[in-house]
Amino acid sequence: MTKADRARGRATLAATASLLVLAIAVPASAQDASQGSPASRTSEADIIVTGIRGSLQRNLDIKRESSGVVDVISSEDIGKFPDSNVAASLQRLPGVSIQRSGSRGEPQGISVRGFAGDFNETLIDGRRISTASGGRSVDFTTVGADFVGQLAVFKTPDVSLSSSSIGATLNISYPKPFDKPGTRIAMSASGSVQDESGKIVPTIGGLFSTTFADDTMGILVDAIYTRRDTQTNRVYVSGWQGGKFAPCQLAGTTATICNPADSGTDPTQVKSVNGWYQQQYGADQRYTKDERIDGRIAFQWQPSDDVLLTIDDNYSRQKVVTDIAGFGIWFNQGDLRNVELDSNGTTVNFLQAGSPTDFTAGTDKNILETNQVGANIKWDATENLTIDADASYSKSRLNPNGQVSSENADIGYGGLLGTSLGVRVTGNSSNAFPELTTYGPNGVQSRWTDQAILGSHVTVRQAQKNSDEIKQFRLGATWKQDDLTVKIGARYMEDEFSLENRNTFANNFWQAYAGYGAPSGRISGVPIPASLIQGTIGTGSWIPGFKGNLPPVLLNYDARAYQQYLEGLWQGPGTPGYNNGCCTGFNGTIDLALDPGSVQNILEKTWSAWVSVNFKTEIAGMPFHFNAGGREEITKVISTGIGRLPTSIVGSTADPTLLTVAFTDAQPVSTSSSYSYFLPALDMKLELTPNLHLRFDASRTLTRPALNTLTPVLNVGSGQRVGALTATGGNPALKPYLADNFDLAAEWYYQRNSYAAVNFFIKDVSNFIVAGTQRQTINNVIDPSTGQPAVFTVSQRVNGPEATVKGVELAWQHVFGDSGFGFNANATFVETNKPYDRSDLSTSGFAVTGLANSANLVAFYDKNGFEFRTAVNWRDKYLLQFGQAQNNSAFGAEPTFVNSSLQIDLSTNIRLTDQFSVFGEALNITNETLSTHGRFSNQLLDVYGYGRRFTAGVRYRF
Fold first, then answer.
1. Each residue of 801-845: pLDDT tens digit?
2. Stretch (H or E) spanning 55
3. If 0-12 CB within 10 Å is exposed, 13-18 middle and 19+ buried, where does residue 133 land?
4. Model confidence over 394-430: pLDDT tens digits?
5. Which of 416, 718, 735, 762 is deepest in the core (most CB within 10 A)?
């Protein structure tokens, strides 16, 4: 973005503020618009229409009447939301795409106009909800959709609600007893099955709402239990690391020796050829059991016509348990030989002598518990003045009891049984995964899982514990007179995020029995009894639509049972197979220790105030709607952590790839910072005809950095690997992203329940937060594998570049008269002046993430109690993030791209009586997969085959 562009943006926003001042001076007797609103022209009978068409008409009416750019999804009936997942419904909207959880295939997050995750703020009834994930975005698999009343996506800001989202503000509204006085009951029960798991699991819920005391009081209660079981097959490369090869490592070399070095007189030995190699390659099968309980209670009391009190409590608890069985093989660039590089520098074939083989097992168990309680009082003080006060408290806790959240174990063979092992890349990451060229002890494939030679290796246990606590209070006033509305208000919000991790890296107990034991020629490590092996998993037809071969089977064993077996061997330091000298304080049990570098406490306090003016008048006889406002936000951040520096690095006698780091004494570190911004907003709408509307919107919004990036310490992990020394640094002084936003739209409401729209948008974003990396020494510690000062790849976030994002949204909704048929289609095309440059090998490469063209189509039939819906969702390839699971590239943070995807879902509902209906759903009927890749398209990182899911159930309403 040039200086001239920035000047024009700032001038426009300054003009917005000036217009706000002028608007306040407009007389309260602004002229009446010549046309009534669609809501005023709609009969009461139309408003209560249920089903697909009724929902679409309500959504259209809200969009049409809003001052800014808003898209809405409403429930089709009480207890009947269009999808079982909030994110799945949102992806039907123009400009909205989803990110899926690889292991489960569930929609987990959303992108709006290319801005994902923390760029979008999620509110529940206008309140920020806490999330213990460490970011600001909400994991939508934790939000039950069954009893949601409405989702509203504000693509231009409402300053009285929030301006803290460059993507969009999502407001989730739940039903309340006064929405429809009287007694209402809704119940649903269903069973679902994922084709790979083969297990039918239940969902059951109920809602009860009633009003009493002459309809001056009401209470609503709902609860639902949901379970999803998913079996997923995966092939992965933990990271494509960039670096330099020596010519002697390349295929076809005539060099008789090969000792790669950074410098020297023999050019065949000097590392001079750019290339990318796989840090770790493997495959696994994951069985995930996802259980969620959602509960809510809302009480309303209207002691007089002028006062309404609402008190509510929203609770959710999600428990996700994933059992994993697979294999993984580690590589070091300096050990690779016969290396073949393609024209991009990707290693497509190689051999590594003496490679060990690990069979992996694990159980990840995480519990996320969130509770939000709030009170709201609305007082119509006069005929024109309404005062609204709202207070809420929300706390989210990840693993609230500090329980072990991850049990992982490796067994296998190496040393004397190490294999001259290689991996070959045979195609693109969208249809082929890499494959082993040799495998098995000493290359004997028939002995791939020979239990007689299996020995113990490392075991990792972790207990991740996070909490996020939000306190917020809002006070606002609204003055309405004729066609003039003025809003003023203020809010205080306090957000405190805490994080700590306990693991077996901190005390080095993960190496207690590493080494594989006697069959591999090692004195450390013990044989694995056959009783621990629970069987094998075949790898035939592993990923649908992908070519590539895997070894025939995976070993299936329980990580915790393996750990308990090792704990039962203890006879003191002389225990056979114990890795003497590795683990100070070890006395037989694989205990966890606090990792000081993981400790964070971030306290963020925000004060905000806003004013907005909205009026209606006429221009040349055409109704004109004008809304201008501004929001001032002041934020203070206090960040604390525990700092320490490495003092030495020691190699492992059990495994030459393992390293242990010793540290100085830990010291508390605390910093504080603050910032403030004025965020103006302008919305204008001109009704050229009663059915053709033009919109123009301009605003400034911000997105704050993720809370877990604000730690003040440099964290060096105590457990490291040869050739992959890493460290991460926080930055408590990070400033928020800032965006100047502009929208120009035309909307044509050409018949009932039908419209077409085009919306052009531009976002000029500054203060981009970049996850840059640099390679540096820390405290002059020596790397025992090289004898030289240890070089760490340090990742740290800084504010830096600017970028412009622009695009167009197209939307068309049409219902074919009274036939019952209709469709809702949209497409979004987006681009940026800062796309990813694959040729940039600097350590501070930058590009805008999340941008992708997308298109959605929902075709439906809704008549005479029968509904059928087909949803097609497409998203093109996009840059997800900078960084991979292993991030040790000499060329900075390597990118992660998500390949394009097309998913087709079907659903149906048949109303048997006014009260009873049956429904069914088929998700991912074409068996789509999720795959990602690195810098180049053949650098596969992950591919997940998460299968299809089928659901059938019944609903009752009264």
1. 889 999 999 999 999 998 999 999 999 999 999 899 998 887 666
2. helix 51-65
3. buried
4. 999 999 998 999 999 999 999 999 999 999 999 999 9
5. 718
Tell me which residue of 510, 533, 504, 331 sits closest to 412, measured CA to CA: 533
First to last CA, the chain: 57
Q: How far is CA 951 from the centre of its chain?
A: 25
Other C-beta atoms closer than 10 Å to the C-beta of 189 total 13
- 208, 330 contact by CB (below 8 A): no
What average pLDDT does the segment 130-158 reach? Answer: 82
Residue 217: predicted pLDDT: 97
Which tokens belong to 616? 């209606």
Amino acid at site 875 = R
Residue 550's Cβ-side half-sphere holds a number of Cα atoms within 13 Å equal to 27
Residues whose CB is less than 8 angstroms from the CB of residue 774 and which lie 6 or more positions away in sequence, other chains included: 793, 794, 796, 843
Residue 238: CB partners within 8 Å, gap ≥ 6? 278, 279, 280, 281, 282, 328, 884, 885, 886, 941
- In angstroms, the CA 945 to CA 923 distance is 14
Nearest CA to 671 out of 703, 704, 636 is that of: 636
Whole-angstrom distance, CA of residue 868 vs CA of residue 858: 10
Higher confidence at residue 75 or residue 496? 496
Q: Which amino acid is at 759?
A: N
Q: How far apart are CA 628 and CA 639, in angstroms?
A: 36
C-alpha–C-alpha distance, residues 107 and 186, integer Å: 26
Summarised one tens digit per residue, pLDDT across range 700-753 is 999 888 877 888 877 787 777 787 787 777 788 888 989 999 999 999 999 988
Bridge partner residues of 955 (DSSP): 188, 917
- 457 in Cβ contact with 412 (< 8 Å): yes
Read out DSSP for 385-434? Answer: EEEEEEEEEEEEEESTT----EEEEEEEE-GGG-EEE-EE--S-TTTB--
Residue-wise DSSP of 827-850: EEEEEESS---TT--STT-----S
pLDDT digit string, tens, across residues 506-536: 899 999 999 999 999 999 999 999 999 999 9
Please give the average per-residue pLDDT across 174-192, as a whole number: 92
The tokens describing 208, both together, are 């009860």
Element (H, E) at 909: strand 901-911
For residue 282 the two structure tokens come to: 């493997």
Instruction: Round to whole Å and give the CA distance between 358 and 885.
Output: 18
Maximum separation of any 2 CA atoms in the chain, in Å = 96
Q: Are 922 and 330 in contact (CB under 8 A)?
A: no
pLDDT attached to residue 28: 35
132: left (phi over 0), alpha (psi -120 to 50) or beta: alpha
Q: Are 246 and 269 in contact (CB under 8 A)?
A: yes
Q: Does residue 20 have a pLDDT over 80? A: no
Q: Quote the radius of gyration of the chain (alpha carbons, Å).
A: 30
CA 268 to chain CA centroid, Å, is 45
On whether the CB atoms of residues 86 and 143 are closer than 8 A, the answer is yes
Separation between Cα atoms, residue 465 and residue 501, nearest integer Å = 6
Cβ-count burial of 943 within 10 angstroms (0-12 exposed, 13-18 middle, 19+ buried)? buried
Collapsing DSSP states into helix, strand and coil, what is residue 415? helix
Report the alpha-carbon distance of residue 505 to residue 525 in Å, rounded. Answer: 18
Q: Give the residue carrying structure tokens 């704990």.
A: 567
* Mean pLDDT computed over 866-893: 88
358 phi and psi angles, rounded to 5 deg: -115, 135
Q: Place 24 in a pLDDT band, splitting at 50, 70 and 90.
A: very low
Instruction: Give the side-chain half-sphere CA count within 13 A for 40.
Output: 5
d(CA 58, CA 752): 11
Give the chain's mean pLDDT: 88
